[in-house]
Structure formats: structure tokens, C-alpha cells
Backbone:
């Protein structure tokens, strides 16, 4: 598109770190590489979140947006959402202003407050995302294009209709559309086909994958993972297709573990009970388990225990979304200490606290996906296809 406006990045408190990473790579790499290079373009939209004494909230954007190409970044699963560090009184009015190089939190009189990073309810992070989108739509008017950048799609596991359960993934897409979203950009959705069916025209969704970014990391460490010794094992049959892609790209064997589930309860595993192939083929192999997310870590550790009983050389986990609900860190750290797990590769699609990356760096290996998102946004901003990115490492 001729005279296409530059992509503007709007942060939310949950998506602040990811938004900064995306803006950095757009500014330092992709805009300068354009046929007409753009250097030092102002991409960041300072965003102010006002929280009232009754806990009501409102969003105010700090720059002109009419006719803009806007990318609102939210991480609903973030474990490091910015909040005031109230020690005595929880419900006080305050403002959170997100500048590109820093953020500031003040009380209702303008005095600075100390802050902390914490995990807030998904619902609150999602509502802040919707408020930001609504503010952008109001500011940009009819010529504005709004893309919701959601490295982790909200409520992606609540995607099956049945009984008396709410269908929250569909509700999320309905609310995004109602707030003014034209396009969703997301990564490794739990159930891709359900995601597609949950989105109605004219809003559309691009589902990217971290697979080839992870493959680049594995190829970069032959000293850890010699190809002739690799074996990909899905922790259940549902993850088999993800593992097949890795195995086919690297020319390695692949199979999966059977699991017994209590079907009367959601996400309850009774125990591992078998390997779909010949267990002898696993002896002395470096096994890699690929799944879209690690939640509490229980299934992963059961899989690692079972595989180690089959005399594999090592077990490594690869996950796009380190949700790490309590007590995942403690469980995984114990599994590493007992020799069950060698490493866990995880992207920053879910924002973890810096101290957790540092504390567990012996086994937790970060993989940055903000460059990948920046490249996709650059192509979308120029009205180019991003399908070619699906096999790029970012």
C-alpha cells in the first residue's frame, strides 16, 4: 500500500515487555531494511491506565492515532504484570503510564509509587486489552486498522462446546471483534482448528508457530543434541503432530506416550501406561518432548519419569507457552535435581519474572519470539503475506 503509515505499538501492563521487544526489532532491523528506509520513526504509543478507588479502570492514549495501523500487545498469562506495590491499602486510585524506555506508577495526587511485577487474573489482563483496543478505535476512527497481538490466545483451552460449560475462546473472539479488532496475530494456539472456527469475517486471524525458531536453537547446539541420537516423543497423542514436524525437519524418529485420563474431570491424568513404539528403541537416546504449553508441570514430569525408566540418555522439554501455574517451578526444579529433566526450552510468549529466569537458569532456557512478531508486523504493515514466515526462525 502506498503511503502506508508506520506500525504503531500500543502496550498494555501485561504485554509491556513483549511490546518493547517488538518495537526494538522493528526500529533496529525491519524498518531500516525497507526499500525506503525508515530510521528513528516514532512507533510507540504511550498508554496511561487510570485505576480509581472503586477499582474501576480507564485507558488514555497519549498521541494522535487517526488513520493509523495499530498493534495492541497483550499477554493475558503474564506472570509479570506491572502493579503498584501497596503494602497496606489495596484499593487506592493510581495511574500506570507505559513509556517506551520506562514506566511510571503514581497515586491520585501524582506522587510516584513503588512497583512490583505479579500475576494478575487472566480476566483483568484481558479487560485491559479490550479497553486499550476500544480507546484506539475511538482515537483512530474509521480509517484505523487494529491488530491484537496475542502471543498466548486468551482462554484457548476452553474451546469445546458441551454440557453446561462456557465456550470462553469463542467469547474472547466475540469481545475482540466488538471492541474494534480487525485482525488477530497469535502463536501456537492450543487447538488451531477451533481457533479458526471461532473467528468470524471480516475479522481474521494469523496463527504463527514457534517451531522453526526452536529448530534453529536445536541446530545451533549439536554438542547437546547430536542428530543421530535424537528421538522426539509427544507427551500424549494430541501433541504428536507438533512433534512430527520437528522429527521430519531433523530426520529423527518420533512417537508418543499413551496416557490414562479420568474423563469425568478436566486435565486429570491417572498415570502413564505405555509407549506407542518399541521401548528398546529409546535406550540411550536424547529424548525431546514438544508441547504447546506447560501448565503445572505434572504431565511433563510423569512423562520424564516414564522415559527415564526406559533408560533414555536425557529428557528435554520444548514449550511455546511457559504458563507455569503453581507449583510448576518447584516441580520442574526438583525434576532437574533428580536427573529427570535436562533442560526446558521456553519462549517469552508468556512473560515470566526476570528473577525466575535467573533463579532457574540451570534448566530453563529462554527463546525470544519478539523478533518473529516484529517481522510479521512489518510484513502486515506493508500488506504482504506472512505465510512465508511459518518456516522461518525469526
Residues:
Amino acid at each position: 500500500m502506498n503511503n502506508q503509515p508506520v506500525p504503531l505499538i500500543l502496550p498494555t501492563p501485561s504485554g509491556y515487555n513483549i511490546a518493547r521487544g517488538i518495537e526494538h526489532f522493528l526500529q533496529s532491523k525491519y524498518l531500516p531494511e525497507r526499500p525506503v528506509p525508515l530510521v528513528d520513526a516514532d512507533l510507540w504509543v504511550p498508554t496511561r491506565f487510570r485505576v480509581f478507588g472503586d477499582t474501576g479502570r480507564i485507558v488514555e492514549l497519549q498521541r494522535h492515532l487517526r488513520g493509523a495501523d495499530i498493534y495492541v500487545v497483550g499477554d493475558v498469562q503474564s506472570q509479570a504484570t506491572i502493579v503498584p506495590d501497596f503494602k497496606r491499602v489495596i484499593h487506592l486510585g493510581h495511574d500506570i503510564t507505559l513509556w517506551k524506555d520506562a514506566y511510571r506508577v503514581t497515586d491520585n495526587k501524582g506522587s510516584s509509587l513503588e512497583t512490583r511485577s505479579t500475576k494478575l487474573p487472566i480476566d483483568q489482563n484481558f479487560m485491559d486489552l479490550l479497553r486499550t483496543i476500544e480507546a484506539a478505535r475511538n482515537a483512530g476512527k474509521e480509517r484505523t486498522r487494529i491488530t491484537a497481538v496475542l502471543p498466548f490466545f486468551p482462554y484457548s483451552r476452553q474451546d469445546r462446546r458441551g454440557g453446561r460449560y462456557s465456550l470462553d475462546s469463542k467469547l474472547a473472539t466475540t469481545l475482540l471483534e466488538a471492541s474494534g479488532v480487525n485482525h488477530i496475530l497469535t502463536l501456537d494456539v492450543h487447538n488451531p482448528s477451533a481457533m479458526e472456527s471461532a473467528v468470524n469475517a471480516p475479522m481474521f486471524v494469523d496463527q504463527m508457530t514457534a517451531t522453526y525458531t526452536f529448530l534453529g536453537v536445536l541446530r545451533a547446539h549439536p554438542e547437546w543434541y547430536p542428530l543421530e541420537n535424537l528421538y522426539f516423543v509427544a507427551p500424549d497423542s494430541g501433541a504428536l503432530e507438533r512433534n512430527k514436524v520437528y522429527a521430519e525437519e531433523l530426520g529423527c524418529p518420533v512417537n508418543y506416550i499413551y496416557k490414562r485420563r479420568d474423563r469425568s474431570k478436566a486435565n486429570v491424568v491417572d498415570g502413564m501406561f505405555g509407549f506407542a513404539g518399541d521401548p528398546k528403541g529409546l535406550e540411550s537416546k536424547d529424548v525431546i518432548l514438544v508441547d504447546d504449553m506447560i501448565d503445572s508441570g505434572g504431565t511433563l514430569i510423569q512423562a520424564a519419569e516414564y522415559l527415564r525408566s526406559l533408560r533414555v540418555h536425557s529428557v528435554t522439554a520444548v514449550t511455546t507457552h511457559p504458563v507455569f501455574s503453581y507449583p510448576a517451578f518447584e516441580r520442574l526444579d526438583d525434576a532437574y535435581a533428580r536427573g529427570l529433566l535436562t533442560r526446558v526450552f521456553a519462549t517469552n510468549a508468556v512473560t515470566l519474572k526476570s528473577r525466575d529466569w535467573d533463579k532457574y537458569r540451570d534448566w530453563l532456557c529462554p527463546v525470544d519470539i519478539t523478533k518473529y512478531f516484529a517481522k510479521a508486523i512489518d510484513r502486515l504493515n506493508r500488506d504482504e503475506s506472512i505465510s512465508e514466515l511459518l518456516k522461518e526462525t525469526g
The mean pLDDT is 89.
